Amino acid sequence: MSATEQDLREQLVDVMLKMASRGLNKGTSGNCSVRCGEGMLITPSGVVPEALTPDAMVYLDASGAPESNSLAPSSEWRMHKGILDRRPDAHGVVHCHSHHATVLACAHLPIPSVHYMVAVSGGPTIEIAPYHIFGSEALAEAVIETLDGRFACLMANHGQIAIAPSLARALAIAEQVEEQAGVYWGTLAIGGPKLLNTAQMDDIAVAFRKYGQPRRGR
Ligand SMILES: [Zn+2]
Question: Is residue 193 packed enough to be buried (19+ CB in 10 Å), middle (13-18) or exposed (0-12)?
Answer without folding.
Answer: middle
